[in-house]
Write a structure and sequence with these properties.
By secondary structure, the protein is of the alpha/beta class. The protein contains two helices and seven strands; from the N terminus they run βαβββαβββ.
């Protein structure tokens, strides 16, 4: 079974999230949306979409999104078969916090040995 297939997103906290988002938008051209981030659509060499994306998002320093971790970041990893992987991780003794299915795909959250929250994501078909 394949485990992680790529990076689905990078999420981090900022002391002044609106100012940092504006900096990235102005200086690096990131199309920051009202929800605080953007989704980079994957493309091939001819700039045609290939069915994937990577989310980038800046959260306020006070965000509880990464709890119970105290880390200022969280990485989302893409997976092909979330429920099978979660069962394997639990059998291996990993600290799996939650599993959810949604319109945006299947998600699971766990904590690594350093206390960092990790998000696993099985995108909907075609993404």
């Amino acid at each position: 079974m394949k485990r992680v297939t790529g990076i689905g997103g990078v999420f981090f906290k900022a002391k002044d999230a609106p100012a940092l988002r504006a900096w990235y938008q102005r200086h690096l051209g990131i199309d920051v949306q009202s929800w605080g981030g953007t989704a980079f659509t994957w493309t091939d060499a001819d700039d045609k979409p290939t069915g994937g994306m990577t989310v980038w998002s800046v959260a306020p320093e006070t965000s509880k999104q990464f709890a119970p971790s105290a880390s200022p970041f969280m990485i989302n990893y893409r997976v092909d078969d979330l429920h099978t992987l979660v069962a394997t991780l639990k059998a291996e003794g990993c600290d799996v916090l939650d599993v959810q299915d949604s319109d945006d795909g299947k998600f699971a959250w766990l904590v690594d040995p350093e206390g960092n929250k990790v998000e696993l994501w099985q995108p909907p078909a075609g993404q």
